């Protein structure tokens, strides 16, 4: 199933959400992502302050350490995946692998990063790590997520393949990957797929999705040159 045959042809005025609404959706998602590890840090600090729980001091310190690491991983990922708060204009495949692995390591799904010694522009990097994260997220019961990159002529292909029991994308995610406005369901499940579609569109590319029982595949086709249209 092709998600968007020519996303770049859609006038900006016809996008399903405007800039202010888009910012609100992204801010809500980031707050949702950050609240769990932030709350765990506070729980660990409360245990340290509790005179009756000093026998749990090591557990509290472990919880704080693990949750703080999760917070840092989320921030590093979000700076590239959702924002422009980085001075880097080029990213190596190894750097991007680290950003995705920081969020996905320890989960039920394994990530096989077959990117190699590639260099990506900012908008290509944004597309790749969002696509990779959504590929892993399509495996709630575990499985193998494979991310590959190839260049053909002046085209760059970013491909994520998820295989495993109950591999799937939630209905909200499919709506987002089509570049459509969410009319029902959870906005938190919609915004990142929509952001991936929008990023591919702004890069002058397209996004494709294939899904069958036990397998989900995402592919972004972008202009392969290092200079990409500026993201607004």
TrEMBL record:
It holds the Pfam family HPTransfase. Residues 94-213 form the Histidine phosphotransferase ChpT C-terminal domain. This is Histidine phosphotransferase family protein. It comes from Brevundimonas olei.
């Amino acid at each position: 199933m092709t998600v968007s045959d020519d996303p770049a042809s859609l006038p900006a005025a016809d996008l399903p959400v405007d800039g202010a609404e888009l910012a609100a959706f992204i801010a809500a998602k980031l707050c949702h992502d950050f609240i769990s590890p932030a709350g765990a840090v506070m729980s660990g600090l409360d245990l340290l302050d509790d005179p009756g729980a000093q026998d749990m001091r090591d557990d509290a310190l472990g919880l704080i350490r693990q949750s703080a690491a999760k917070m840092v991983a989320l921030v590093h990922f979000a700076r590239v995946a959702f924002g422009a708060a980085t001075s880097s204009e080029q990213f190596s495949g190894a750097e991007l692998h680290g950003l995705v692995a920081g969020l996905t390591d320890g989960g039920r799904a394994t990530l096989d990063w077959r990117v190699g010694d590639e260099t990506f522009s900012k908008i290509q990097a944004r597309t790749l790590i969002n696509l990779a994260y959504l590929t892993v997220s399509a495996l709630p019961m575990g499985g193998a997520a494979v991310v590959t990159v190839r260049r053909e002529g002046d085209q760059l292909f970013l491909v994520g393949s998820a295989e495993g029991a109950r591999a799937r994308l939630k209905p909200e995610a499919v709506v987002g990957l089509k570049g459509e406005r969410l009319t029902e369901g959870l906005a938190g499940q919609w915004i990142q797929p929509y952001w991936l579609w929008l990023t591919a569109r702004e890069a002058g590319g397209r996004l494709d999705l294939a899904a069958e029982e036990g397998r989900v595949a995402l592919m972004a086709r972008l202009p392969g040159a290092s200079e990409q249209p500026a993201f607004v």
